[in-house]
Amino acid sequence: MRISVVTLFEEYFDSPLQVSLVGKAIGNGQITIDFHNPRDHGKGVHKQVDDAPFGGGAGMVMMPEPLARTLEPLASSHRVMFTPTGSPLSQAALDRFAGMNHLTLICGRYEGVDQRVIDHFVDEEISLGDYVLLGGEVAAAAVIEGVARLLPGVVGNPASTESESFRDGLLEEPVYTRPSEFRGWSVPEVLLSGDHGRIAAWRAEQRRLRTLERRPDLVDE
Ligand code: JCQ
Questions:
Q1: pLDDT tens, 178-194?
Q2: Domain with CATH 1.10.1270.20 in the chain
Q3: Range 2-148 classified under CATH 3.40.1280.10
């Protein structure tokens, strides 16, 4: 799979792409990543990429020409831009992205991006959540990691089954490992019982309770 990243700050991705399974997937050639910097198409001696908003107001807007020039050669890919006004990122979106040959991740900066570029050079807008960051780089790194673990062979691949379990719409149950007593705190007895029926029932109940308490929005009704 090829992932193109459009960013003013390629160096932001240095460690996320080296570390762990993502680093391995890139090392194996399962993922190839290339970077494209709108600054290379910036205007004038200062390579300007942002300008004041029409109509006034605070902050700067990314200019259309440098971004359009950056995106033109990537037109045959699926182009995703990260903005706080996009559709929320989900496991379903990651599953969809993981099936693509060539994905382009566009990191906005400043207060926004000229809408004409979004209208004509972007396929979808995605948000990492209801908060504002300085740029889309964190969201792009999240998508790279979320997609990498779905690619065949990257996680030795229980990943696809794991995302299945998220798809059933409940949070995961709590998990424990040795020792069975840690600083006086015991592991729930049922998990040591060897009774697989009881364990499965306990896990299902924990998932239900946890979801009701923390994410009532995920429970149907
Ligand atoms: C992404 N949740 C928050 C900030 C404007 C392209 O326009 C903008 C992009 C950003 C950076 O992304 C985020 C974000 N998901 O802040 C402002």
A1: 999 999 999 999 999 99
A2: 163-218
A3: yes
